[in-house]
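Troubleshooting: if your tokenizer reports a length mismatch, compare your output against this known-good record of 300 residues.
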Amino acid sequence: MYIDIHSHAYWKPAPFVTKFFTPELLIAAQDAAGIEKGVLLPVVNSEIYLPQSNEDILDMCEKYPDRFIPFCNVDPRALTNSPDAPLDKVLQYYKDRGCKGVGEVMCNLEVMDPKVQNLFYCAEKVGLPVIYDGSDQKDGDFGLYDDPGLPQLEHTLQRFPNLTILGHGPVFWAEIAKLETPAERGFIFGFRTEDQVGMYNSGPIKEEGVVPKLLRRYKNLHLDLSDGTAYNALTRDPDYGPQFLEEFQDRAYFGTDFCNTDYADAPLAKKLLEWKNEGRISETAFHKIERENAIRLLGL
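Known-good structure output:
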């Protein structure tokens, strides 16, 4: 059964915008998708939703220890709103309480913002992997901003070679192929609406983008396969997707990004099984992506 590297839950139904799962609804969705257990990522950045506490996540994991794995999270502006904030003390506290990683970081700052770099520095110091979402906008959105070609991510990988960063979200996965236009990198909220507009990249991958190149160059870059952007990137070219997973099988992690009860499907679970049964990915690669990589990374 799968281990999910990326999911969300709130104790009680959220009042508006995002219909987050309760722990019990999330367990039901996991059961339906063949997921044994999943990582819970706390939402702490106000850009995306009303923040929750790390203690909420720990309490859920204590109530359902066989189903949930805790991550902790801290806004890089916390404590002193400065690049020398002692965030390592916060992260070490939660690591000692059982948290296995940091994220999902979703503040709308630049990846190379000194406060964000301090968060990465502190995560490396404490020894926790990081998951963050990205944005192609510097305001009016959530997620860390990076430029086309992901140079800020690359500089971060260079600065912190012992920090495991799991690539996630549209800005990352759009660059599995060479971009046709920069706006392909992400979605944007409609003007004075809550609807997101934009498009998924589609069609065969004619030329590789920076993502596979970064993966070959930096062993500390790993792959969070959750949400529709990862699924789209892997399936838009049915020949390239399985080859990509086969090549990077040691650093790829199954995920769902379950966060909205209106979208409780996990198509990647079915696709990975289909590719394994068809011989498009090896049995070894399947089991690594399904659960073995997560067990190793998280020390389960």
